């Protein structure tokens, strides 16, 4: 795993470099940079084989091919992407396959990543064309660094959607409701989570009576998320996100 060790550390160095370079203009990136500095540079662990679904393999190959830059973070990802234990992010018998087979992640740091950390989750997030990842919230704070393709992000129930393209970073604060939508190309993102990294993910849905409900997704040992039931969204949360 010597090679994977070097590749994982090149990725961390490149991502930390991006955060350092941008934190002067965007102070909201500072906590992400600080947490990254604390990631133990311990030995790299063996990880399992990547997902074998054809849609995953084709989308990853196309996204890597379309990456427009040779900056260090892009080069680090080019070298590392095939070494990760990619998995389907959401698992569940009731989940629409159009959603389940459109989101894949490969951890570099985290519970199943090449490097272990209790405080940080970072790696690659691959979104297949035609995805709409519905409004959701989580306790962790999150950044996306777009590498390839683009994704339309919306913050808040009435927020104005905007596109995130290669070289651009988004910052999602803890408990901020947000959605992601892809177009015709696969989208490859670096993600980083800090804070409450293992608290549930809540998917919001407005029912026909106009009330918001949320489905709870809990983190599993293999890092994927599994559904655990639905409950009404408290009205004060709806108001805060409107
Ligand atoms: Fe998120």
CATH class: Mainly Beta
Choose one word for the global shape: globular
Overall number of structural domains: 1
Question: What percent strand?
Answer: 25-35%
* Approximate helicity band: 25-40%
Please explain how this structure is put together:
There is one protein chain. 26% of the residues lie in helices and 34% in strands. It has 242 residues and is an alpha+beta fold. It has a single domain (2-196), classed as Jelly Rolls (Sandwich). The strands form 2 sheets. An 8-stranded mixed beta sheet has the order 2-14-13-12-5-10-7-8, covered by helices on one side. Helix 1 runs antiparallel to helix 2 (30-37). The chain starts with a helix and ends with a helix. 38% of the residues are buried. The chain binds fe (ii) ion. The site of fe (ii) ion has 4 residues, from loops.
SSE arrangement:
Blueprint: H1 2-23, H2 30-37, H3 54-65, H4 72-80, E1 87-88, E2 90-91, H5 97-100, E3 103-109, E4 120-127, E5 132-138, E6 140-148, E7 151-155, E8 162-164, E9 169-172, E10 178-182, E11 187-195, E12 201-206, E13 212-219, E14 225-232, H6 235-241
Parallel strand pairs: 2-14
Antiparallel strand pairs: 1-3, 3-4, 4-11, 5-10, 5-12, 6-9, 6-11, 7-8, 7-10, 12-13, 13-14
The structure holds fe (ii) ion.
Residues 138, 142, 172, 178 line the site of fe (ii) ion.
């Amino acid at each position: 795993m010597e090679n994977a060790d070097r590749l994982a550390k090149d990725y961390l160095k490149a991502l930390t470099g991006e955060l350092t370079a941008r934190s002067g203009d965007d102070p909201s990136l500072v906590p992400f940079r600080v947490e990254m500095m604390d990631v133990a540079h311990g030995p790299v662990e063996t990880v399992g084989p990547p997902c074998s679904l054809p849609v995953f393999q084709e989308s990853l190959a196309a996204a890597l091919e379309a990456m427009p830059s040779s900056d260090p973070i892009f080069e680090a990802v080019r070298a590392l992407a095939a070494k990760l234990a990619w998995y389907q992010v959401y698992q569940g018998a009731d989940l629409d396959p159009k959603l389940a087979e459109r989101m894949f992640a490969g951890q570099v740091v985290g519970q199943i990543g090449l490097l272990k950390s209790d405080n940080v989750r970072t790696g690659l997030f691959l979104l297949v064309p035609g995805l709409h990842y519905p409004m959701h919230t989580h306790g962790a704070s999150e950044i996306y660094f777009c590498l390839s393709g683009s994704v339309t992000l919306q913050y808040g129930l009435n927020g104005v959607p905007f596109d995130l393209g290669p070289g651009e970073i988004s910052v999602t604060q803890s408990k901020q409701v947000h959605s992601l939508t892809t177009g015709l190309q696969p989208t490859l993102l670096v993600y980083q989570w800090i804070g409450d990294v293992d608290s549930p993910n809540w998917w919001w849905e407005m029912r026909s009576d106009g009330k918001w409900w949320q489905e709870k997704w809990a983190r599993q040992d293999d890092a994927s998320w599994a559904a655990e039931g639905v409950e009404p969204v408290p009205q004060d949360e709806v108001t805060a996100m409107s």
